Structures are given as C-alpha cells and as structure tokens.
Amino acid sequence: MSGAPGLPHAAGTPGRPGGAPGGSCRARAARALHGWHGVHRVHSAHGAHGDKAPWYLPLTLTVDALGAALPLASLLHRTGRPHAAVCGALAAAAWLAVRACRRRYTDAALGESSGLAAVLGDWLVLLGVLAVLRTAFEENASASLALAGIGVAPLLATATRAATHRHLTAARHSARAVRRVLVIGEPSAADHVVGHLTARTGHAYLVVGVVPVGGAKLECAAPVTSRLGPVTPSGPAEDAGIVLGAVREHRAELVLVSPGPRLTAERLRRLSWALHDADVPLAVVPGLVDVGLARMRLDTPAGLALLHIAPPTRAGTPVAVKTAVDRTGAALGLLLLAPLFAVLASAIRLTSPGPAFHRQIRYGRAGAPFTMWKFRTMVVDAESRRPELELSGGNENDGLMFKMRRDPRITRIGRVLRRCSLDELPQLLNVLRGDMSLVGPRPPLPDEVARYDEVARRRLAVRPGITGLWQVSGRSELSWDETLAIDLRYVDNWSLAGDVDVMARTLRAVVDGRGAY
Q1: The pLDDT of residue 17
Q2: What does the pLDDT read at residue 475?
C-alpha cells in the first residue's frame, strides 16, 4: 500500500519498501511528526462517536420536556388546582436538569442504550427533587396526584431512548455513525481484536487499518499501511511517525492498542505521548471479553495500571431480592392469569387430542434436573418423531438445539401460542417452586447438556428463566455460538437492573414475534 499523503515511506520497516535515499527512518519519522496539527482537524471533524443523526438531541429534549410538563399541568388543571402551568414548567425543568446532570444528553450517551434501568434511576432522583420543590413552594397538591402526573415522563423517555437506539444500531449495521479505528499490536493480537470487532456490527468501532508489530503474517483482511519494528526503537519519534502516518492515511479517529511482549509498557507509554500531543484518542485492549463495566475497577499502585475484575454476583442481598421478586411475581401471575389459563387449556384440548399441558425434563442451576411445564403446542408423539426429523435434515439450528421453522409436529393452536409466547406461561409454576427464575438463560434439554463442553456448562451457573437475553435478541434466529455468548454474558454480568431491562424488552419481543417458532 502507499504511504500517507505527503509522508515518505519508513525505510527498514518490515513489510515496507525502502524509502527514498537521503534520509534515515528516524529523520523521516521526525519530519512526519513536525506540524502534525492536521491530525486534530481530521479527528475533530468526525466527532467523538461518529456522525450520529442530528435529531437525537432535539427529539430527546422535546419529549422529556413535554412528557414531564403536559401530563402534570393537564391533571392539575382538570382537578382545579392552582398554578397548574407553573407546576408543569417546574417539573419539566427539574426533569431536564436531572437528566442533564446524569449526562443523558451527551453525544456519548444518545442512542447508545435502550435500557429502562437508567431512566428509572433518573425518575427516582426527580421524585426527590420535586418533593423538595413542593415543600419549598408550599404546594398543597396531593402527592399521589403529582406522582400520577409525572409518571408519563419515564415512559416517554424510555420509548425515545429505544427509538434512537434502534435507529443508531441500524445505522451502524450499515457502517454509519461509527468511529474509524486503527489497531496496533502483534499480528496474533491484532487478528483477535479485528475479528472480534468485525463479528459484531452494532457497536461504534469500524476497523480501517492495522499497524502490526514485527514481521509475522496478519490473517485478518484489514489494510496494513506500515509496521512497527520488532524491538523498541532508541527514540520515540520512529514509532510515533509510523503510527501517525497511518492515522493520517486512514483518517482514523481512535488508535486501539493491544499490548504484548514486543509492545512493552514503556514503548506504549512513549507512543501515547505522541498520540496525545497530536490530539489522537488512544484506547488499550485489556484482553477481556464480555465483562460488564460494573465489575471493573481501576487502580494505580506504584504507577502500575491495574484493572480489578469483581466475580459474578452469586449470593447476598441482590440474589435474595431476585428470589423474592421471582416467587412473588410468579404467585401474582398465576392468580391473575388463571382465567386465561382455563381458556387456553380448553382451546388446546378442543383442537387436538391429548393433554393441555406438556411436561418435559430440563436442567437447571448446577445441572439439577426438574420437570418444566408448558402449554402443549405439538402433537402428542412429538418427541418420538424428532429423530426422524433430525435424520432428514430438519434441524435449522447450527448447534445443540433443535429448531425448525415449519415444524410439522406443531398444531394450529400451538403456532398461535408460540407466536405470542403464551405457551411459556405455565413455567410460572416452576418459578414459584424455585426451579426457574423470571429472567435467565433458556433451560436446556438433557441431550443438549450431555453434549456441553466446559464453556457451555457455565450456562448452568444460574437458574434458567422464562425470559432472558436469548428471547429478546432474536430467539431461534440466533446461531448456537450467538446463543451461548449471550447466555454467558448474562451469567457473568447479572444484575437486578439488567433483569428489569430484559423484562421491559420482553414485551417488545413478544409483540414483534421475531424468531418465535
């Protein structure tokens, strides 16, 4: 490949042709560093998180302001309360101030998440702020009336958050609204980073080039502009000139470094000086995968940067709260849904011979077997017909699960139940008994568990759930590797806030019906 515009090639660099005569590599690198103000202009033109749609911020601000002001003012006006408009304006101002202080309107935050937990946290802070304002202004409106008035604000904020996140994710699938990333590291490490980033397209990082360290072969297809030498140069200008030249050529907005034996801490430190002096952002890959931010903590003893990783939550108050919520929710659900259970059971019995419920052995936490209950959606002899379908190539899943889009064993009423996820409702009995949870990985079959390797068995570290990340991320349309990665992400990074987010996304997944067959 050609060098950066206006820059000479670095002579002696592995994988690069010799430069023009009359100058050493170090001298040419120094000339490349001279007047590097052009990098700042390229970086700043693209913004910190790519070119996001300009309507994200005005839409979010408008919905937040109107969602807090109008319902409260309207409710106070209809009940004959004084100062309805003023109260609505104060509520809107407080809501905007709370979310601004919690950095919900920054470019780094807009569109990046669709979670409900953050909005609920903001709303709880708003309640405290409004309670103080109510006392300060001696407003005599009832607390329940005010609570009902501002209850619409978090719902609209969540809907807006979901809409912008969905739009941003779709844009990134098309390589828009992304940051141009230059990867630096030894070829094996660079291959790993590039492969991981290119395997998932919903994030903000687009690899535009690689600067390998040393002369080993690079397996990924990313462009290689130049290479760093296998040993640390005597001066910092040589590495800096090569990297900054690649930044300019690829118009990179972020340098992503994967340290290794040939890219030592001191070498990286000197390179960081040059990048920061040129106003080029730098990020370092710690070598971890699917570890939630809440489990990470930075420390710098004796100037050495340490990244502490907390173990997954398996006991304590959060787990006790989850268990209490599970069983309470299951009991209330069974009580409220009893009439629906009777209707669905009758429909199943009247439309196909056999029982209304289907019992199946599944494996739960720590590999303990239990009997799982579902509404029957297949013919009575479905299990005996499965081997025949597998032999005929009916399985459309590439892993251990058996999934068939047009499974002939499914009854007509069963298709409706599966499309609406109503067949899962009897699992509330399993939640009440403690075999399952409301949220968790999909409970596997015995033959699936028999073929699990050590990695897949980690799915059994928590109770399986009626819903989970698998159900809200595409269900049967996901490959086995995608399913396993999603479940392990849940198992390792479980939190109560994450469960709330999954429950909120479950409703949308049920309405959408994607992957339900």
Answers
A1: 33
A2: 65
Residues in contact with 357: Cβ distance below 8 Å, sequence separation at least 6, in sequence order: 345, 373, 374, 375, 376, 426
Q: What is the 8-class DSSP label of residue 138?
A: T
Residue 146: both structure tokens together: 């005010």
CB atoms closer than 10 angstroms to residue 14: 15
CA distance 199 to 482: 10
Q: Which residues pair with 50 in a beta bridge?
A: 48
Nearest to 464 by CA among 492, 430, 502, 510: 430
User: Which secondary structure element, helix H or strand E, spans residue 296, and what is its range?
Assistant: strand 296-299
- Nearest-angstrom CA–CA distance, 235 and 214: 17
Indicate the pairing of strand 465-467 with strand 306-309: unpaired
DSSP, collapsed to helix, strand or coil, labels residue 323 as: helix
Pairing of strands 306-309, 296-299: antiparallel
365: confidence class by pLDDT, cuts 50, 70, 90: very high
Nearest to 272 by CA among 184, 187, 213: 184
In order, the DSSP letters of 383-443 are HHHHHHHHHTT----SSSS---TT-TTB-HHHHHHHHTTGGGGGGHHHHHHTS-EEESSPP
Please give the distance of CA 454 from its chain centroid, rounded to a whole number.
Answer: 25
The DSSP annotation for 94-122 comes to HHHHHHHHTT-SSTTTTTS---SHHHHHH
Question: Does the pLDDT of residue 283 top 70, yes or no?
Answer: yes
Say if CB 371 and CB 360 are below 8 A apart.
yes
Dihedral of CA 309/313/315/317: which sign? positive
If DSSP states are collapsed to H, E and C, what string results for 226-272? Answer: CCECCCCCCCHHHHHHHHHHHHHHHCCCEEEEECECCECHHHHHHHH
* DSSP output for 73-93: HHHHHHTT-SSHHHHHHHHHH
Centre a 10 Å sphere on the Cβ of residue 150 and count the other Cβ atoms it contains.
Answer: 24
The pLDDT of residue 291 is 87
Q: Give the three-state DSSP class for 450.
A: helix
**Which tokens belong to 437?**
């949870």
Under 8 Å CB-to-CB from 202, ≥6 apart: which residues?
Answer: 169, 172, 173
Among residues 341, 345, 363, 362, the alpha carbon closest in space to that of 354 is found at: 345
SS (H, E, C) 366-396: HHCEEEEEEECCECCCHHHHHHHHHHCCCCC
CB distance 489 to 461 below 8 Å: no
Does 12 have pLDDT greater than 80? no
